[in-house]
Every structure is written in structure tokens, then in C-alpha cells.
Amino acid sequence: MLIDLEGIDGSGKGTQSQRLCERLRGAGYSTALVSFPRYSETLFGQAVGEFLNGQYGALEDVHPFLVSLLFAGDRFESRQYLLDQLARHQVVVLDRYVPSNVAHQASKLEGTERSNLISRILQIEFKIYDMPRPDWVLFLDLPVATAQQLIARKAARQYTDRAADIQEADGAYLERVRAVYEELAATEPQWRRIRCCQGAELRSVEAISEEIWQQVVSVLPA
Question: Which of 44, 54, 122, 176 could cross-link 73 (Cys pair, CB 3.0–4.6 Å)?
Fold first, then answer.
């Protein structure tokens, strides 16, 4: 089983994917965690880091189709590694995957251009590169203002020397990304939405983790 955790930057994907793996292991499931992008493990992952660090220009300077190829290339380089993990383990948890590429790049376009880009990304990742499709996608939905507060508390990352990379720093951009995620969660049957705030209050890590577990345990193989 392939379970993907998605959400805008700062929504807690890394923390919750690790907690989910620990819970799965505690329940007796053989589990692996794979996080994308794989900044230091692939050539394309290194290029993604350079893009996010602003080395290719501002966010709007690079066409989203070209950006999508960097993220898709990172996964293609990692394809055999991911297949190996699926062969060895009952459950593989993903911290970001193809839906992240769709949400981030499609958010930069409108109308027919957006639809065409989504179709291209899905064709490249799932048909040309033959990446395995996730069985379930859990969307960690967090308001952008709260996400940016959490981003400001992050420790230094290996791919950037900035407090926030060019995606994280742009609140209007993150709002558009969140809107695409909301569309996907409302239309894709294998998606589940996990609200990270109750009203204006951020829910605890433990409460969010428990809701994720209840969603996952209901679909796990016996």
C-alpha cells in the first residue's frame, strides 16, 4: 500500500509522515518512509533545491511546465528505489508525491492552460515515467497564515540558505496552491482531507496524528 501525505509548505507533512510510520510499525506493519524531493540523492533533486533557493530566478521567472520537469525527474530517478521499498514493505508512506507537483505548478496558471498542464504532469509522471499511483492521499489542510508562522520556526534546510524558500515566502502563491489541493480533495475519491485547525486554533500534533491514523487503519489490509 502506498499512502501519500500532501499539503502546502508548513502543514506538517514531515512530522506526520514520520509519526504515521512509527504508528504503523507499532501495529506490526513493515513500513518505509520516502520523502520528495530527494535533494541530495538525485541530480534532479539537487536542481529542485537550486530552483527553490532562487538560483534560477524568482518564482514567476520559470515556466511551471519546466519546473514540473525538475520535480518529475527527481521521482523518475527515484523510481527503482521506490519500487524496491514497495517490494520489501507492506506500507510505504510518502512525504509529498505527484499531487504536490500538480498543485504547485497548476496554481500558477488559469483555465485551459491549467488543465493542459495538469494533464501533461500526470501523463509524464504516471504514463511516461510509470510511477506507481498512491492508494490513498491524505491532504493536511492548513491556512496559509498559520503555515507561514510554522515555516518561520523551521530549522535550517540543506537545500537553501534562506529562512523560507521562494515558494514558502510567497503567501499569495501558497493560497493558490492550497486552492488546487482543495479542488483535488473534493474531486478525487482516494483523497481524504485532514483539517489542521479547529476554527482559528491550530490542532495539536497528537490530535492530527490520531485522525490520520483513524483514516489509515480503516483501509489497511488485515
Answer: 44
For 24-77, how does the pLDDT look when each residue is reduced to its tens digit (9 = 90+)?
Answer: 999 999 999 999 999 999 999 999 999 988 999 988 899 999 999 999 999 999
**What's the farthest any 2 CA atoms get from each other in the chain?**
49
Residue 222 located in a structural domain = no
Instruction: State the Cα–Cα distance between residues 53 and 47, nearest whole angstrom.
Output: 10
Type of residue numbered 139: F
* Nearest Cα to Cα of residue 93 among 125, 48, 41, 135: 135
- Long-range Cβ contact pairs of 14-23 (< 8 A, separation 24 or more): 14/95, 15/205, 16/140, 16/205, 16/208, 16/209, 16/212, 17/93, 17/94, 17/95, 19/205, 19/209, 19/212, 20/93, 20/209, 20/212, 20/213, 20/216, 21/93, 23/209, 23/213
Cell of 203: 490542532
- Average pLDDT in the chain: 91
CB 54 within 8 A of CB 48: no
Give the CATH number, domain containing residue 16: 3.40.50.300
Distance separating alpha carbons of residues 178 and 32, to the nearest angstrom: 27
| 144 lies in some domain | yes
Residue type, 210: E
Residue 58 CB-half CA count within 13 A: 6
